[in-house]
Design brief:
2 strands
């Protein structure tokens, strides 16, 4: 039963679907901000002097000594204040640091598919609420746990990962019910670009707080501020337009009509079983999976490890480190919104298809970072050029939000959350491997040569992404979206009720 529309301040200022998109973006910003703040705070938590002496005195891999002697280290600029920075209290080796940074993805890995099904069958709104809430609690407890033992920090990070793992599936389910097809790229980019906005705010805040109030303040301040979102989300967001009291009749009809009337058919939507065989043998779906996994390697390389590259190789101090690594994510946010709006406009004018739009977005998100990383291998200690290249590479990654990350809803809106959970689960593996991989190669060897190896591996994975997605990617809805698997395992197609690739412009 439809909830009667109410005339209120919300519908006069902003449409209900964009209230959802903005709060979803802020929620993603909180989750990502609380994920990456440790990468910056850790720079202030560690006793770098003692750790470096210990690792050089007793290296586990003999080759590192040779490389360190042969490598020319970058000298910190005289004005950087690098020597004045105080070391932190913790003597965590490179391997322990890698475990702490990667364990987030252990929880992230296991929660996605169960979280997606709960979101599809019950409530994506409350799944998203759980995600942010558990991240806030674990963040507030991190300083106490760090003083106890690094294993306690690992447990907190796993808890945050469990919450973080369900964010993309939950938001995909909400977007499949709220986003008109002609606005899908823009709404998806707005929501998911919150990850970059959260990264910017978190890195800048973490750098300033660590330098001025101590590393503990990073977790207390950022965790405390995030509590306000929880109240707003419960009050202002509903799972479907039909359940939303803060919406006009016109907007509700616009959304439902553009989605073929499917959003008010809740019982049938919930009872659709996932046609697993058809999904796992679908070329367009597998193309998304490959693109997501390869792209995430580069994403996590820049998101998690960039502060350490700036610190270890280019010798940036805390404030410079925070600014150099955070500001590119702000340009990523602007670029992703501009690109998605442009692609949606071109689709609305029938100049390009959805398939072309998704491939263009993915092309920007893979080719440009790969070229920037290749160039970064050979600029040496030229800090200005290095910062410019990383900024350009990070900015271009924003194309993924209107590229393959929006593609799940195109090919199968009825299972958008589950498809996102599957690809994001596989794409979580790089998040686990990257910190350990980097920690292994840079153990006692924090040099440009070690980082070149890291960058070349990343470039190779970007190349795979480009080739596979360009050949097999598609923006067309797949027949199995409305199919039910028979006892023999083959999908039986039901009448098509939900068109998702409408290129006509839906009025805002």
């Amino acid at each position: 039963m439809d909830v009667p529309a109410k005339g209120n301040i919300f519908e006069r200022i902003i449409s209900a679907r964009y209230i959802l998109a903005v709060l979803g973006s802020i929620g993603m910003a909180i989750v990502y901000g609380l994920k990456v703040n440790l990468s910056v705070a850790l720079v202030g938590m560690l006793n770098h002097t003692a750790i470096k002496l210990n690792e050089h005195a007793a290296p586990e891999h003999g080759i590192h000594n040779v490389t360190v002697l042969a490598e020319v280290e970058c000298e910190p600029p005289e004005s950087s204040g690098h020597a004045k920075e105080a070391d932190g209290p913790f003597l965590w080796s490179s391997q322990i640091q890698g475990i702490i940074l990667s364990c987030y993805f252990w929880g992230y890995f296991v929660s996605q598919i169960p979280g997606a099904r709960v979101a599809e069958l019950f409530s994506a709104k409350w799944v998203m609420f759980f995600s942010v809430s558990i991240n806030v609690v674990c963040t507030l407890l991190t300083p106490v746990m760090a003083e106890a033992h690094y294993v306690a920090v690992v447990i907190m990070r796993i808890g945050e990962g469990i919450g973080g793992g369900v964010t993309f599936p939950a938001m995909h389910v909400l977007l499949s019910k709220w986003a008109p097809p002609a606005e899908r790229s823009v709404m998806a980019a707005l929501v998911y670009a919150g990850t970059s906005l959260g990264t910017v705010c978190s890195m800048l805040m973490a750098g300033v707080l660590t330098a001025n109030l101590g590393w503990e303040s990073v977790f207390y301040v950022m965790g405390g501020l995030s509590c306000l979102w929880c109240a707003l989300w419960v009050w202002l967001v509903q799972d479907t337009p039909q359940q939303q009291p803060f919406i006009s009749k016109e907007e509700r009809e616009l959304i439902v009509t553009s989605l073929g009337g499917k959003t008010d058919d809740h019982d049938e939507h919930k009872k659709l079983p996932v046609p697993w065989k058809a999904v796992l043998t679908s070329g367009p779906f597998l193309a998304i999976l490959v693109a997501h996994a390869c792209s995430n390697w580069g994403w996590y390389m820049l998101l998690i490890e960039l502060p350490f590259y700036m610190k270890q190789v280019l010798k940036f101090n805390m404030a410079e480190n925070a600014a150099a690594t955070a500001l590119p994510f702000l340009s990523l946010w602007f670029f992703s919104i501009a690109l998605s709006k442009t692609l949606d406009w071109l689709r609305g004018k029938s100049h390009i298809t959805t398939t072309t739009a998704r491939k263009v977005g993915t092309f920007f998100a893979s080719v440009v970072p790969a070229v920037c990383l290749l160039s970064l291998c050979y600029v040496g200690c030229n800090r200005g050029v290095a910062v410019a290249l990383t900024a350009l590479g990070v900015t271009a990654i924003g194309g993924m939000f209107c590229g393959f990350l929006s593609n799940h809803i195109d090919i199968a809106p009825n299972f958008a959350g589950t498809l996102m959970a599957i690809t994001n689960t596989v794409a979580t593996v790089p998040g686990i491997i990257v910190p350990i991989f980097v920690g292994f190669l840079t153990h006692g060897n924090q040099t440009i040569s070690a980082w070149r190896v890291i960058f070349f591996v990343t470039i190779g994975l970007y190349a795979i992404e480009i080739v596979v997605y360009t050949i097999f990617g598609s923006g067309e809805q797949q027949p199995w979206n409305n199919a039910v698997e028979t006892q023999g395992g083959n999908p039986e197609e039901k009448p098509l009720k939900n068109e998702t690739d409408k290129n006509e412009q839906v009025p805002v």
